[in-house]
Amino acid sequence: MALHQKLVPGQVLLLLRLMFWLIILLATKSTSQPTPTTGSSCLNSCGSVSIPYPFGTGPGCYYDESFHVTCNDTSTSNSGGSSTNSPKLFFPTSNVSILNISLDGGELRVEGPIARNCYNRLGKLTSNGSTNGIVSTSLLTNSEFPISATRNTFVTVGCDTLAVINGFWGRNYTAGCISLCNQLDDVVNGSCSGLGCCQMSVPEDVIDFGVAIGSLKNHTEVFDFNPCGYSFVVEQDSYNFSSADLRDFQKRETVPLVLDWSVGNLTCEQAQENVTGYACKASSHSYCVNSTNGPGYRCKCSDGFEGNPYLNDGCKDINECERSIKPCVTRCNNLPGSFSCSACPKGFKGDGTTEGTGCTPIDGSGKQSVVKLSIALGVSIGLLLLLLAGSWIYWALKKRKLIKLKEQFFQQNGGILLQQQLIHQRGSSETAKIFTAEQLEKATDNYDQSRVLGQGGYGTVYKGVLQDNKVVAIKKSKIGNQSQIEQFINEVIVLSQINHRNVVKLLGCCLETEVPLLVYEFITNGTLSDHIHDKDQYASLPWKMRLKIATETAGAIAYLHSSTSMPIIHRDIKTANILLDESYTTKVSDFGASRLVPLDQTELTTLVQGTLGYLDPEYFQTSQLTEKSDVYSFGVVLAELLTGQKAISFDREENERNLAMYFISSVKEGQLLQITDKRLVDEGNIEELNEVANIAKSCLRVNGEERPTMKEVAIELEGLMRHKSGMHPWGQDHNPLLSSEEIEYLLEPSHTSFGEVNHGDTSSTVFDSMSIQMLKPYKDGDGR
């Protein structure tokens, strides 16, 4: 905020104190100028800074004392003999370093000082300066060159800072601004409007300045993020305010500052009267311009010349003919300060210059050229049309080939069979949808890698957004051979009709690609494996939530086994295939290894497929796949929920690496609580933990016939949930975990119980040609 805004009495008093200290500071400035000297040895540069005349370092090297500069070799040598600091250019009577001298622009770029005041947490001044809370600084270049009014700005940085600038020479003035803020969030990077940073312009005709800086409340209220205030005059393009400057600006000692330099204090007309003292030495090849900032003048080379106009013959002719952009369309002739172009050839007219009329044919004499030009233009257009036609034919053939390839894939992947099946299912509202390849390519940004959700033994899963903004999971399935197509189509039909809230919904498929694509609903809250084992990303699940997840999962698997039109054996039940939505509702997913079981069969003979650690040992040895294989895998899931440990872990002892074996032996030895997740034990549900452990133990029996059915497991777990809620297991005065249809199904008579063995199963054999996949556990974050 500018100082002309209304100030409170305390601020006015501080402002007066700042102005008083500035007057004392600037009153001590020396106004004497040294007498010019002459000499012969002149440096062309100092470090990386060129020293053009009228500036110079030694006698006879500079125009007068105002252009006298000194090259101080501040470099030091290290043990290797190399220099660590380059020489710097200064004015002889000051410590202001010169960064650059512009001959044509008449500017000096120097290092300007920074006024600062720093306080401790108690509000005591800690920076060098007066103990009354005011810190002052001055440029004090001892030169006669004014500060550039167009290239610099006065800046104050701080959240409790008042700064005043006082300048003098051709124009004495005093101005200032206040920068305030209450918190770091108030400030805006790049803005100096008064919040954390304020700025104001610098007037013309100012040769030197002093800056005084103070604080209204000694930074006590903003100390945590701004212990210091800063004020300085800086080159406009060299500083861009950042909120980080409120804390870390102490490391900077100087800022770049631009001075306007000129010769003497006379105008061009006055200086030209004294030929000997006139600084423009390049005779007729230079001219004089008056200074726009203070008295004096500067010299420039005339048009067509370049160099140093302050030296005899310093302005050299520019050879325009050698420039990259030729000035002539004909032959170019260089002239002093200019150039000329040769005449246009016979039959053409014009001045021959590139920027002028050039050379154009004279009427009647350029007909031959026009004919040639027309022929060339016609040939070019013909070739262009031929190229366009060829490109169109190429793309048309390529598109036709792509369409045929899609049709081939569609038939090869059983598209016609699926269409026929869908016609029979048209009366059902739960039928699969056939997506086109273009729809799914658009939904996945052409299967961009950033859309990959996960990869597993049965395919790659992508996140997709359909045209109606519905988010889906798109899976590239793996099919072993074409003999599986009919089975694949049947699975698509059956799975799409599954309408269970704890089973991931299959929405449809795409058969126009080499590998069939399956489209599922998208589940957002990760897998059960993530929530159990990834303690850094997910909070621990309480026992009530774990019991709910186990109950919902058991109900979903029991539904797949017995309540669908054709029973489904999942064959890969594991925590990585159990997804959770935002309300922690269970979703059983990944049916890539699932098998449909004909209603007249209870067993299938298949090649072994599954995930190590969850694989039914009986199925592994006999290749006989039954519903009890899913029961075993679910028992491993229960063990994971109870212990919080992975199904297979090489971090455990050798005899404990397989969680199922480790769990069973621990339960038999009465060590359940020792291996149970400590957080569950601390909740105090010991009786329920024991009951669920017994269910898990029953599911993990080696002999499949001795295991309970998933229907029985679901009933037991549902009963535990009802008991925990203090209600009858099948009471209707509550919001049940299972639907009324599911409860009716579970209440049907069961063939076996946990203490009985069913020996009445019949078996028939169906061969599965899918490849053996003994998979090590992997983390499926597919989102299905």
TrEMBL record:
Keywords: ATP-binding, Disulfide bond, EGF-like domain, Glycoprotein, Kinase, Membrane, Nucleotide-binding, Phosphoprotein, Receptor, Repeat, Serine/threonine-protein kinase, Signal, Transferase, Transmembrane, Transmembrane helix
Chain sites annotated for binding ATP: K476
Reaction equation(s) it catalyzes: L-threonyl-[protein] + ATP = O-phospho-L-threonyl-[protein] + ADP + H(+); L-seryl-[protein] + ATP = O-phospho-L-seryl-[protein] + ADP + H(+)
Pfam families: EGF_CA, GUB_WAK_bind, Pkinase
SMART domains per the UniProt record, alphabetical: EGF, EGF_CA, S_TKc
Keyword Glycoprotein belongs to the record: yes
Domain of life: Eukaryota
SUPFAM superfamilies: Growth factor receptor domain, Protein kinase-like (PK-like)
Domain Protein kinase: 447-731
Protein's membrane topology: Single-pass type I membrane protein
Gene3D superfamilies in UniProt: Laminin (2.10.25.10), Phosphorylase Kinase, domain 1 (3.30.200.20), Transferase(Phosphotransferase) domain 1 (1.10.510.10)
Signal peptide: 1-32
CDD domains: EGF_CA (cd00054), STKc_IRAK (cd14066)
Gene Ontology molecular functions: ATP binding; calcium ion binding; polysaccharide binding; protein serine/threonine kinase activity
Residue ranges crossing the lipid bilayer per the database entry: 375-397
Cellular location(s): Membrane
One cellular component term from this protein's GO annotations in UniProt: plasma membrane
Principal localisation: membrane
GO biological process: cell surface receptor signaling pathway
Role played: Serine/threonine-protein kinase that may function as a signaling receptor of extracellular matrix component. Binding to pectin may have significance in the control of cell expansion, morphogenesis and development.
Protein name, entry field: Wall-associated receptor kinase
Annotated source species: Trema orientale
